[in-house]
Amino acid sequence: MEHINIDGIEDIKLENDKPKSPLNTINQDEPDPLNTNNKVQSKSVTWSTELTRESPHPSSLPGYVESTSMPPRDNNPYVNASSPSHPQSQSQSQTTSATVKNTVSTVKDVLGKWGKKVGESTKQAEVLAGNVWQHLRTGPSFADAAMGRIAQGTKVIAEGGYEKIFRQTFETVSEEQLQRTYACYLSTSAGPVMGILYISTAKLAFCSDNPLPYKVGEQNEWSYYKVVIPLHQLKAVNPSISKVNRAEKYIQVISVDNHEFWFMGFVNYDSAVKYLQDALQARFLQSVT
After folding, report:
1. Residue 165 contacts by C-beta under 8 Å, 6 or more apart in sequence?
2. Per the confidence metrics, is the pTM higher than 0.85?
3. Which residues, other chains included, contact 76 with Cβ-Cβ below 8 Å and sequence gap of 6+?
4. What is the CA radius of gyration of the chain?
5. Which of 15, 2, 107, 20 has the alpha carbon at shortest distance from 62?
6. What string of DSSP letters covers 189-229?
7. Whether the Cβ atoms of residue 150 and residue 16 lie closer than 8 Å to each other
8. At 188, which helix (H) or strand (E)?
9. Does the domain spanning 19-28+67-288 belong to CATH 3.40.50.620?
């Protein structure tokens, strides 16, 4: 039995370049489902058919390539890479994924039970459960995504929390403070890359959960995929949803020199939108003072 904490869902247990813009999206202002001031009758969460039905695999989109290799940088100044201290092989990753049995039904059952515990706010439970489901199926493999979340949760505990991981992963200044972290995916020309988005008082930063392979001659090398955008380089933060599947929600981040980054598969989407827009507002305030 494994324990994992995903963006505000406590103690969930599970058993055994140049990015392409997502298609068919529209800007969307949504009410905050995390507001528990609204009086809602306590009841258990039910799974809608829209949420649990099988959706077309992302590979059906034009130009999609699975993120099994390092995406090209395309001369993007905000993208960089770093080598892992203990590279993992492709066979190790496949072996780990093979240990997940009946992942879909297990996650369904876990989130359903969690929803009953959060009965004081049914809307909150349904939204978060739906976001978790969408997060896990955004990547090429549902099982790999579930195992990735477990591995990330274990890493956070082992290394002393996101604050320490953030300072070990990125260059920081002494007065810089980490404000929020969000499990999500970054859209790249090589497909969606799963990782953590960090929002600090100085920057937005993303790092892939796992190192990705790339070729150096005939050898396979491994590197984490990173994006770092200083707050003073932020130009816009645009939330959007898919016209085809409203469960698919995105956040477009644009730099002052017009580099675009698309983030998707958030567990706490509305919170991420709020804090990213707050970071943008802070940038504007700094520029006029």
Report:
1. 155, 156, 159, 196
2. no
3. 17, 18, 259
4. 19
5. 20
6. TTEEEEEEEEEESSEEEEEESS-EEEEETTEEEEEEEEEEE
7. no
8. strand 178-188
9. no
